[in-house]
Amino acid sequence: MREDGKLDYLEMPGGDLPAVKAFYGQAFGWTFTDYGPQYAAFSEGLDGGFQSQSAERAAQPLPVLFAQDLDAMLAKVQAAGAAITKPIFEFPGGRRFHFRDPAGNELAVWAEL
Known about the structure:
alpha+beta, 2,3-Dihydroxybiphenyl 1,2-Dioxygenase, domain 1, eight-stranded mixed beta sheet
């Protein structure tokens, strides 16, 4: 069962997605599920994916936490002093928001639809 506030997913910049998939496949035996031409998901110990769409791609890996109640978690994150960098938005399979912690790290929190 997924728990609030636990690491649940790791999204990484994809760049040249075919080259990234070939590298991880050859080096580590990873397999991928493609969600269109610009996103490939993996399940290799920790679920994650590579984002190659430049408008959506983070400059660095993006840890993604889980929440049962996304709106309540957004309120907690804001009350703790985080800067919200992307308000709640929908994506295939869920909703999420992004924030920066006091050290400047960007993270996201997601919930299932």
